[in-house]
Write a structure and sequence with these properties.
Layout lengths: L2 H18 L9 H20 L1 H23 L2 E5 L2 E8 L2 E5 L1 H11 L5 H14 L24
Antiparallel strand pairs: 1-2, 2-3
Helix pairs in contact: 1-3, 2-3, 2-4, 2-5, 3-4, 3-5
Length: 152
């Protein structure tokens, strides 16, 4: 089984778990992602203290978030450096989204890495080119004739 197939399987298992917990309408939509964000918030304290619990949470929730992104925005899973990212082509641009990294950041940083905002605001505005400049990692201009390793 490929990593992408494994991610899909984990996402479906996570969805089954959420549905069996009373969330019959749980799917790949904004409301469900918001619910997952609350779930991750409740689990974060213990996940920050326990690396194995954190890895498990990142794996399952990251797979779910990735499949939700694929369902809403298209794209495909791509294996990169031994992990998975989501590759979305839009116009002449390509975006690489990291749902596992986003879930990890949500656990470690709290609400500043809110999953609902990421899913429903950040991604669509980034894909449409409407994201404000402060959302970008930005590019630093390279100074000519200055070695890369010099900091002055």
């Amino acid at each position: 089984m490929s990593l992408a197939e494994s991610a899909k399987q984990q996402a479906l298992e996570f969805m089954d778990t959420m549905r069996s917990a009373g969330n019959e309408q749980f799917g790949f939509d904004r409301k469900s992602v918001a619910h997952v964000d609350g779930f991750v918030e409740r689990m974060s304290k213990s996940a920050r203290r326990n690396e194995q619990r954190r890895a498990h949470l990142v794996s399952f929730v990251g797979s779910y978030l990735g499949e939700a992104i694929l369902a809403a925005y298209g794209g495909k899973w791509v294996e990169l450096d031994g992990g998975l990212v989501i590759h979305i082509e839009h116009g002449e641009r390509i975006s690489m989204l990291q749902p596992y990294g986003k879930v990890h950041d949500r656990i470690m940083n709290g609400d500043e890495d809110n999953l609902e905002f990421y899913f429903a605001e950040f991604i669509p505005k980034t894909l449409s080119g409407e994201a404000p400049p402060e959302w970008s990692m930005g590019e630093r201009p390279v100074e000519p004739n200055k070695p890369w390793w010099k900091v002055w």
